[in-house]
Amino acid sequence: LSLMSHPLCHPQLEGLCSFLQLSTCPEPCLVRFCGWLLALSPDLSYTSAAVLAEQLFLRRVLSLTQPPSRHLMAALSSFCSKYSHPFCRVLVAAVLQEPGEGAEQTKLMCELVEECLEPRSVQLLLSQVLEVPLSEKLLPVLQAVLGQQVRHPPCPLEVLPPELLDLLVLTLCQQAPAFATSLSFAKLVTAVLTVCQGQVS
Protein backbone atom coordinates (compact mmCIF):
# COMPACT_ATOMS: atom_id res chain seq x y z
CA LEU A 1 0.00 0.00 0.00
CA SER A 2 2.92 2.38 0.64
CA LEU A 3 3.52 2.36 -3.13
CA MET A 4 0.44 4.53 -3.49
CA SER A 5 2.21 7.53 -1.97
CA HIS A 6 5.25 7.14 -4.19
CA PRO A 7 5.49 9.13 -7.44
CA LEU A 8 4.14 6.44 -9.77
CA CYS A 9 3.26 7.51 -13.28
CA HIS A 10 -0.36 7.35 -14.40
CA PRO A 11 -0.14 4.00 -16.31
CA GLN A 12 1.80 2.37 -13.46
CA LEU A 13 -0.83 3.34 -10.91
CA GLU A 14 -3.65 2.24 -13.19
CA GLY A 15 -1.87 -1.08 -13.67
CA LEU A 16 -1.48 -1.51 -9.92
CA CYS A 17 -5.18 -0.75 -9.39
CA SER A 18 -6.09 -3.28 -12.08
CA PHE A 19 -3.83 -5.91 -10.51
CA LEU A 20 -5.48 -5.32 -7.13
CA GLN A 21 -8.95 -5.37 -8.79
CA LEU A 22 -9.92 -2.21 -6.91
CA SER A 23 -12.79 -1.33 -9.22
CA THR A 24 -14.62 -4.55 -8.31
CA CYS A 25 -13.41 -5.31 -4.79
CA PRO A 26 -16.13 -5.96 -2.17
CA GLU A 27 -17.45 -2.77 -0.59
CA PRO A 28 -16.34 -3.62 2.98
CA CYS A 29 -12.80 -3.99 1.61
CA LEU A 30 -13.22 -0.65 -0.16
CA VAL A 31 -13.96 1.04 3.17
CA ARG A 32 -10.82 -0.42 4.75
CA PHE A 33 -8.72 0.48 1.73
CA CYS A 34 -9.89 4.10 1.84
CA GLY A 35 -9.04 4.19 5.56
CA TRP A 36 -5.51 3.09 4.71
CA LEU A 37 -5.27 5.70 1.95
CA LEU A 38 -6.16 8.50 4.35
CA ALA A 39 -3.44 7.34 6.74
CA LEU A 40 -0.70 7.45 4.09
CA SER A 41 2.17 9.88 4.55
CA PRO A 42 2.93 11.85 2.51
CA ASP A 43 -0.50 12.53 1.05
CA LEU A 44 -1.33 11.32 -2.42
CA SER A 45 -0.51 13.65 -5.27
CA TYR A 46 -3.41 15.23 -7.16
CA THR A 47 -2.83 12.91 -10.13
CA SER A 48 -2.66 9.78 -7.98
CA ALA A 49 -5.82 10.76 -6.10
CA ALA A 50 -7.62 11.36 -9.41
CA VAL A 51 -6.58 7.94 -10.73
CA LEU A 52 -7.73 6.27 -7.53
CA ALA A 53 -11.03 8.16 -7.56
CA GLU A 54 -11.65 6.80 -11.04
CA GLN A 55 -10.54 3.26 -10.25
CA LEU A 56 -12.32 2.98 -6.91
CA PHE A 57 -15.58 4.77 -7.55
CA LEU A 58 -16.39 5.67 -11.15
CA ARG A 59 -17.95 2.38 -12.24
CA ARG A 60 -19.78 2.00 -8.94
CA VAL A 61 -21.25 5.50 -8.98
CA LEU A 62 -22.33 5.48 -12.63
CA SER A 63 -24.06 2.11 -12.21
CA LEU A 64 -26.14 3.14 -9.18
CA THR A 65 -29.84 2.40 -9.61
CA GLN A 66 -30.65 2.61 -5.90
CA PRO A 67 -29.14 4.49 -2.95
CA PRO A 68 -25.51 3.53 -2.26
CA SER A 69 -24.90 0.99 0.46
CA ARG A 70 -23.60 2.21 3.80
CA HIS A 71 -20.20 0.73 2.95
CA LEU A 72 -19.98 2.54 -0.38
CA MET A 73 -21.18 5.77 1.18
CA ALA A 74 -18.60 5.47 3.97
CA ALA A 75 -15.82 4.91 1.43
CA LEU A 76 -16.96 7.82 -0.74
CA SER A 77 -17.25 10.14 2.24
CA SER A 78 -13.83 9.30 3.65
CA PHE A 79 -12.05 9.66 0.31
CA CYS A 80 -13.95 12.81 -0.60
CA SER A 81 -13.22 14.45 2.75
CA LYS A 82 -9.48 14.47 2.01
CA TYR A 83 -9.27 14.44 -1.79
CA SER A 84 -12.38 16.33 -2.79
CA HIS A 85 -10.79 18.36 -5.60
CA PRO A 86 -9.59 15.39 -7.70
CA PHE A 87 -12.79 13.57 -6.74
CA CYS A 88 -14.87 16.36 -8.30
CA ARG A 89 -12.71 16.52 -11.39
CA VAL A 90 -13.19 12.80 -12.04
CA LEU A 91 -16.53 11.72 -10.58
CA VAL A 92 -18.67 14.83 -10.86
CA ALA A 93 -17.54 15.46 -14.43
CA ALA A 94 -18.49 11.91 -15.41
CA VAL A 95 -21.90 12.11 -13.72
CA LEU A 96 -22.68 15.41 -15.46
CA GLN A 97 -21.86 13.92 -18.84
CA GLU A 98 -24.13 10.93 -18.36
CA PRO A 99 -27.38 11.12 -20.34
CA GLY A 100 -30.71 10.58 -18.67
CA GLU A 101 -32.08 11.50 -15.29
CA GLY A 102 -29.47 9.81 -13.08
CA ALA A 103 -31.62 10.21 -9.98
CA GLU A 104 -29.35 8.26 -7.64
CA GLN A 105 -26.23 10.01 -8.92
CA THR A 106 -27.89 13.39 -8.39
CA LYS A 107 -28.89 12.48 -4.82
CA LEU A 108 -25.36 11.32 -4.16
CA MET A 109 -23.87 14.60 -5.40
CA CYS A 110 -26.26 16.54 -3.18
CA GLU A 111 -25.31 14.48 -0.14
CA LEU A 112 -21.59 14.91 -0.80
CA VAL A 113 -22.03 18.67 -1.19
CA GLU A 114 -23.92 18.86 2.09
CA GLU A 115 -21.65 16.59 4.12
CA CYS A 116 -18.19 16.09 2.64
CA LEU A 117 -16.88 18.64 0.15
CA GLU A 118 -14.51 21.37 1.28
CA PRO A 119 -15.50 24.94 0.30
CA ARG A 120 -13.02 25.21 -2.58
CA SER A 121 -14.36 22.02 -4.09
CA VAL A 122 -17.96 23.21 -3.75
CA GLN A 123 -17.02 26.14 -5.96
CA LEU A 124 -15.39 23.75 -8.42
CA LEU A 125 -18.53 21.61 -8.48
CA LEU A 126 -20.65 24.71 -9.10
CA SER A 127 -18.47 25.73 -12.03
CA GLN A 128 -18.71 22.19 -13.44
CA VAL A 129 -22.51 22.20 -13.23
CA LEU A 130 -22.68 25.57 -14.99
CA GLU A 131 -20.55 24.27 -17.87
CA VAL A 132 -23.28 21.86 -19.01
CA PRO A 133 -26.85 22.57 -20.17
CA LEU A 134 -29.09 23.11 -17.16
CA SER A 135 -31.60 20.32 -16.60
CA GLU A 136 -34.17 19.39 -14.00
CA LYS A 137 -31.79 16.79 -12.57
CA LEU A 138 -29.15 19.45 -11.85
CA LEU A 139 -31.44 21.86 -10.02
CA PRO A 140 -31.21 19.92 -6.71
CA VAL A 141 -27.41 20.03 -6.93
CA LEU A 142 -27.40 23.81 -7.27
CA GLN A 143 -29.93 23.98 -4.44
CA ALA A 144 -27.62 21.87 -2.26
CA VAL A 145 -24.70 24.22 -3.00
CA LEU A 146 -26.76 27.22 -1.95
CA GLY A 147 -28.19 25.36 1.03
CA GLN A 148 -24.71 24.68 2.34
CA GLN A 149 -24.18 28.44 2.50
CA VAL A 150 -27.26 28.88 4.65
CA ARG A 151 -26.39 26.04 7.05
CA HIS A 152 -22.66 26.53 7.41
CA PRO A 153 -21.51 30.13 7.05
CA PRO A 154 -18.97 31.32 6.19
CA CYS A 155 -19.05 29.21 3.06
CA PRO A 156 -17.84 29.20 -0.54
CA LEU A 157 -20.77 31.23 -1.78
CA GLU A 158 -20.31 33.97 0.79
CA VAL A 159 -17.83 35.65 -1.51
CA LEU A 160 -18.37 34.04 -4.88
CA PRO A 161 -15.77 34.90 -7.50
CA PRO A 162 -17.47 37.61 -9.61
CA GLU A 163 -17.12 35.59 -12.80
CA LEU A 164 -18.79 32.55 -11.21
CA LEU A 165 -21.64 34.59 -9.76
CA ASP A 166 -22.13 36.29 -13.13
CA LEU A 167 -22.25 32.89 -14.83
CA LEU A 168 -24.77 31.57 -12.29
CA VAL A 169 -27.08 34.57 -12.68
CA LEU A 170 -26.70 34.60 -16.48
CA THR A 171 -27.50 30.88 -16.67
CA LEU A 172 -30.64 31.29 -14.55
CA CYS A 173 -31.79 34.28 -16.62
CA GLN A 174 -31.23 32.49 -19.92
CA GLN A 175 -32.91 29.29 -18.78
CA ALA A 176 -35.91 30.90 -17.08
CA PRO A 177 -38.30 30.46 -20.07
CA ALA A 178 -37.51 26.73 -20.27
CA PHE A 179 -38.31 26.29 -16.57
CA ALA A 180 -41.36 28.54 -16.39
CA THR A 181 -43.45 25.80 -14.75
CA SER A 182 -40.70 24.27 -12.59
CA LEU A 183 -41.17 24.64 -8.85
CA SER A 184 -37.55 23.51 -8.33
CA PHE A 185 -36.29 26.31 -10.55
CA ALA A 186 -38.41 28.88 -8.69
CA LYS A 187 -36.98 27.68 -5.38
CA LEU A 188 -33.46 27.89 -6.81
CA VAL A 189 -33.92 31.49 -7.98
CA THR A 190 -35.31 32.42 -4.56
CA ALA A 191 -32.30 30.77 -2.89
CA VAL A 192 -29.87 32.69 -5.11
CA LEU A 193 -31.58 35.98 -4.30
CA THR A 194 -31.51 35.13 -0.59
CA VAL A 195 -27.97 33.80 -0.29
CA CYS A 196 -26.29 36.21 -2.70
CA GLN A 197 -28.45 39.26 -2.09
CA GLY A 198 -25.42 41.44 -1.39
CA GLN A 199 -23.93 40.54 -4.76
CA VAL A 200 -27.02 40.49 -7.00
CA SER A 201 -28.55 43.76 -8.08
TrEMBL record:
<dbReference type="Pfam" id="PF11510">
    <property type="entry name" value="FA_FANCE"/>
</dbReference>
<dbReference type="GO" id="GO:0036297">
    <property type="term" value="P:interstrand cross-link repair"/>
</dbReference>
<dbReference type="GO" id="GO:0043240">
    <property type="term" value="C:Fanconi anaemia nuclear complex"/>
</dbReference>
<protein>
    <submittedName>
        <fullName>FANCE protein</fullName>
    </submittedName>
</protein>
<dbReference type="InterPro" id="IPR021025">
    <property type="entry name" value="Fanconi_anaemia_gr_E_prot_C"/>
</dbReference>
<feature type="domain" description="Fanconi Anaemia group E protein C-terminal">
    <location>
        <begin position="9"/>
        <end position="199"/>
    </location>
</feature>
<dbReference type="InterPro" id="IPR039685">
    <property type="entry name" value="FANCE"/>
</dbReference>
